[in-house]
Amino acid sequence: MSNPVTFNEKDSRYEQDHDGHIVYANTHLKDDVLYIDYVYAPPELRGKGAASKFMHALMTHIRSENMKAIPICGFAATWLTRHPEYDDLKA
Predict the structure, then answer these.
(1) Residue 32: pLDDT above 90?
(2) Domains in the chain, ordered, with CATH?
(3) CB contact at 8 A, 65 and 31
(4) Of 4, 42, 44, 88, whose CA is between 20 and 30 Å from 23?
(5) pTM for this one?
(6) Could you give the CA distance from residue 60 to residue 66 in angstroms, rounded to a whole number?
(7) pLDDT-based confidence at 78, cuts 50/70/90?
(8) Under a CB-based contact definition with an 8 Å cutoff, are residues 9 and 26 in contact?
(9) CB within 8 A of 50, min separation 6: which ones?
(10) Pair type for strands 33-40 and 21-30
């Protein structure tokens, strides 16, 4: 993927740069399950698909690491419902 997510260990979150703006998800990991607590996109990126691109990249990362995901955040939960191609990643 050309714009992968990176893990910011200090803030315990996954991040993705979008033209100098950071979209991120606060997360915590337990037993190979990534809990997606909160997804944030800066106001400059809202309505432009940045959070959706981020979620695609995050799910790709989760798949590559053989993890599962539990969305706590309403946005992440709704997004996963709308993208059944990631159903195999739901814990």
Answers:
(1) yes
(2) 6-69 (3.40.630.30)
(3) no
(4) 88
(5) 0.93
(6) 10
(7) very high
(8) no
(9) 18, 21, 23, 41
(10) antiparallel
Contacts 24+ apart (CB under 8 A), 1-7: 1/57, 1/60, 3/53, 3/57, 4/57, 4/60, 4/61, 5/54, 5/57, 5/58, 5/61
Cα-based angle 36, 40, 41 (whole degrees, multiple of 5):
140
Q: Which own/partner contact pairs does 65-71 have at CB distance under 8 Å and 24+ positions apart?
A: 66/32, 67/29, 67/32, 67/33, 67/34, 68/32, 68/33, 68/34, 69/33, 69/34, 69/35, 69/36, 70/33, 70/34, 70/35, 70/36, 71/36
- How far apart CA 89 and CA 1 sit, in angstroms, is 18
User: Which amino acid type is present at position 51?
Assistant: A
Calpha distance 69→20 (Å, rounded):
27
Q: What is the pLDDT of residue 12?
A: 87
12/27 Cα distance (integer angstroms): 6
